[in-house]
Write a structure and sequence with these properties.
heterodimer; A: 6-stranded mixed beta sheet; 4-stranded antiparallel beta sheet; 48% strand; B: 123 residues; 11 strands
Chain lengths: 107, 123
């Protein structure tokens, strides 16, 4: 299985801050990397595919980058609704493993 | 609107069997893979497996193979996740999700997701 490791596990930030979350794969996955957002009590919501392609409807303050084994999700200016847990997922091969999640909290 | 609607919460005893469902609507159910994801209390997302309702081709995560069975009934656009003998450690929220894709590429992702089914296993 491909292991996905996110860092940090949690992050405190303020509205308006720029934040980045890192995801590392245990082997090269090219750019087969997705990002999801999950709020408490809700199902995950798809944000980004192919490491950097924003799904239609997602705010443009979200962006993704990376290729191979190292990837980054960046939120350019945090909004109150962005405080949530973020997961990366590789879609390179089954099982399509997730990272352990990064909880983004209000400072 | 593409939608996945899951069956309601379940409370079971250890050793009991269970089958939960995920009904798709608003799209061609037989043309998209459906995946299952576990989320244990306060924990992250774990990919369990995936099924193609068109021909019932199924792939399991090694962590879940032999522990659960994934199936689908295309006549009623419904996918299932079942256990033959539940354990307390099966207590979790289980999500189904459609594997969508970008035309002309190999990129795919899970969207939309069902609302989740809470399974509680307790004596």
């Amino acid at each position: 299985d491909i292991q996905m490791t996110q860092s940090p596990s949690s992050l405190s930030a303020s509205v308006g801050d720029r934040v980045s979350i890192t995801c590392r794969a245990s082997q090269s996955i090219s750019n087969y990397l997705n990002w999801y957002q999950q709020k408490p009590g809700k199902a995950p919501k798809f944000l980004i595919y192919g490491a950097s392609s924003l799904q239609s409807g997602a705010p443009s303050r979200f962006s993704g980058s990376g290729s191979g084994t190292d990837f980054t999700l960046t939120i350019s200016s945090l909004q109150p609704e962005d405080f949530a847990t973020y997961y990366c997922q590789q879609s390179y091969s089954t099982p399509y493993t997730f990272g352990q999640g990064t909880k983004l909290e209000i400072k | 609107e593409v939608q996945l609607v899951q069956s309601g919460a379940e409370v079971k005893k250890p050793g009991e069997s269970l089958k939960i469902s995920c009904k798709g609507s608003g799209y061609s159910f037989t043309s998209y893979w459906i995946g299952w994801v576990r989320q244990m209390p306060g924990k992250g997302l774990e990919w369990m497996g995936i099924i193609y309702p068109g021909d019932s081709d199924t792939r399991y995560s090694p962590s879940f193979r032999g522990q659960v069975t994934i199936s689908a009934d295309k006549s009623i656009s419904t996918a299932y996740l079942q256990w033959s003998s539940l354990k307390a450690s099966d207590t979790a929220i289980y999500y189904c999700a459609r594997r969508d894709y970008a035309s002309g590429t190999s990129f795919h992702w899970f969207d939309p997701w069902g609302q989740g089914t809470l399974v509680t296993v307790s004596s």
